[in-house]
Amino acid sequence: MSNHVRLAVLFLLAAVLSSPVAALEWGKPFGAAYDGPEGKPRPVTPPPAELSADERATIVVFERATKSVVFIANTAIQRDIWSLNVMEVPQGSGSGFVWNKQGHIVTNFHVIYGADAIKVTLADRSEHQARLVGADPDHDLAVLQIQVPESQLEPLAIGSSNDLRVGQKVLAIGNPFGLDHSLTTGVVSALGRTIKSMSNRTIEGVIQTDAAINPGNSGGPLLDSSGRLIGVNTQIVSPSGAYAGIGFAVPVDTVNRIVPELIKYGKLIRPGLGVSLVPDSMARRWGIKGLIIGKVARGGSADRAGLRGARETATGRIELGDIILAVDGKAVDTVDELMDIMEKHRVGDRVTVEVLRNNKRQTIEVVLQAVN
User: Fold this and answer.
1) Which region is the signal sequence (predicted)?
2) Is 104 a catalytic residue?
3) Catalytic annotation, pick one of 138, 140, 253, 303
4) Same structural domain, 280 and 321
């Protein structure tokens, strides 16, 4: 046998030995029966006598709360350019939860923004057309209503957020990526955070959590370990758009204050001074610190208290009026800061307003009025 032939035989033998078929069982026909223990299912390890107390509690909370969580589909009405047929086009989806037995559903404003039609799917998988009752874009909250028998509705128990503590266990239920009734758990990571809403307003007192919140969880409930509502999941911080360990929820104390007004009035009735203010950017451009009163509503609270707005002189010059420096002793330098102070009050409350008038500081008491 020549050296070339001998080398070819060695290569062929190596290829056979290294092939998957040859490696299965050397010297045994492929597919032959095998009765060894490796060819049988492994024995099942018996479960523990019972689940841990924490696991049992989590299961109870989920099974009770999931009856209250709904899936929300946001659709737009469009006309096909060829057939001219009207059709519903999905725009997005999110979560929500049953607020009361009258069919009111709470969710995020951004979940239903721009919707021509809204469909709510309950835990029993029944689908219902919903109408928009009211919305507050500044706090990213909206209230819908569906017409169903009370027996189909399971409102969530309402908790409080002013007594939460960092490290407290929380549970989030929602429909991430359209996967209905998914549960994630975590802890309160921080309290008193601030985030920006779609209207670019600051939402105060926000709860930060590491419970996984993904697209589709928006509008779903954040619960404490007893299953009480403590927040509405609304945003995440993520470079990729998916969960990255930081989620935010609007605190339930804010929700419980706003939702009844949305149900009653369709909007949030805000307390205010009864003035219009010059934009912050213009005040900064003029080098003025504080809030410049542009106009005072005639007959309003500010007018009755004696606050003054800007006016045009006989020569056509604009003469500045009062500049608001502080409200209730808290300095204000932006419209956002003033609105944050107003949110802590109700219509009819009295506040002290410190203004700069003719280069002199004055303090004026104003009764807050309802404003748009």
Assistant:
1) 1-23
2) no
3) 140
4) yes
Measure CA 349 to chain center. 30
Catalytic residue list contains 345: no
Give 52: exposed, middle or buried? Use CB within 10 Å, 0-12, 13-18, 19+.
exposed
- Which one-letter DSSP state was computed for residue 58? H
Distance CA 75, CA 118 (A): 6
Partners of residue 232 on adjacent β-strands? 221, 250
Q: How far apart are CA 218 and CA 224, in angstroms?
A: 17
Choosing from 93, 95, 104, 110, which is the catalytic residue? Answer: 110
Domain CATH number, residue 255: 2.40.10.10
Residues 124 and 68 both lie in one domain: yes
When divided into structural domains, the chain yields a total of 4
Q: What is the per-residue pLDDT for 281?
A: 85
Q: Which residues, including other chains, have CB under 8 Å from residue 218's CB and lie 6 or more apart?
A: 94, 95, 107, 108, 110, 111, 174, 233, 234, 235
Classify residue 15: in a domain, yes or no. Answer: yes
State the Cα angle at 265 between 233 and 108, rounded to 5°: 15
Q: Is 140 a catalytic residue?
A: yes
Place of tokens 């009752």: 133
Catalytic-labelled residue, pool 161, 182, 218, 301? 218
Identify the burial level of 361 via C-beta atoms within 10 angstroms of its C-beta, where 0-12 means exposed, 13-18 middle and 19 or more buried: exposed
Q: How many residues does the chain have?
A: 372
pLDDT attached to residue 99? 97
State the pLDDT at residue 85: 57
Q: Would 292 be classed as within a structural domain?
A: yes
The tokens of 76 are what?
């737009």
- Tell me which residues of the chain have a pLDDT lower than 50: 5, 7-17, 21-24, 26
State the distance between the two ends of the chain, measured CA to CA, in whole angstroms.
Answer: 101
Amino acid found at 336: D
E strand or H helix at 174, and its extent? strand 169-174
177: which residues sit within 8 A by CB, 6+ positions away? Answer: 214, 215, 216
**CA 128 to CA 226: how far, in whole Å?**
29
What pLDDT sits at residue 251?
95
